[in-house]
Amino acid sequence: QVRLVESGGGLVQAGGSLRLSCAASGRTVSSYAMGWFRQAPGKEREFVSRITWSGGSTYYADSVKGRFTISRNNAKNTVYLQMNDLKPEDTAVYSCAVNPAPGVWSDWGQGTQVTVSS
């Protein structure tokens, strides 16, 4: 079983940047696609970004395209989310998950809070 731990969240002003990390332990995730999701208060969890096992392909929600960058370091068993030009509507709890099969997400982390002030 994989344990995912997110870190790097915090309070930032609009226009600022944060870099989130998702560290995996228990077993390697290097052969799996990984993704980031977020959930704002009172809203459903939404997809943010996905990266294939090799890092060769990345996918983004339209709302973050051009501002967020997903990457991974398989030697460190870690996935990152660089968030630039943050907006108040990016405020949410950000969680990472393993993507072992199409449409399947598993081993969710506990999440890290990102708050963007206007």
Question: Which properties best describe this structure?
Answer:
4-stranded antiparallel β-sheet, mainly beta, globular, 7-stranded mixed β-sheet, 118 residues
Describe this protein's structure.
The protein is mostly beta strands and 118 residues long. Helix content is 0%, strand content 54%. It contains no helices and 11 strands. It has strands at residues 3-7, 10-13, 18-25, 33-39, 46-51, 58-60, 68-73, 78-83, 92-101, 104-106, 112-117. Strands 2, 4, 5, 6, 9, 10 and 11 form a 7-stranded mixed sheet that branches.
Shape: globular
List segments where confidence is low: pLDDT < 50 over at least 5 consecutive residues. none
Describe the largest sheet. 7 strands, mixed
Radius of gyration: 13 Å
Q: Enumerate how many helices there are, as a single number.
A: 0
Q: What's the N-to-C terminus distance?
A: 40 Å
Give the structural class.
Answer: mainly beta
Strand content: over 45%
| SSE sequence, one letter per element | EEEEEEEEEEE
- Oligomeric state of the chains in view: single chain
Average pLDDT: 97
Short description:
The chain is mainly β. It contains no helices and eleven strands. Strands 2, 4, 5, 6, 9, 10 and 11 form a seven-stranded mixed β-sheet that branches. It has a four-stranded antiparallel β-sheet with strand order 1-3-8-7, with no helix packed on it.
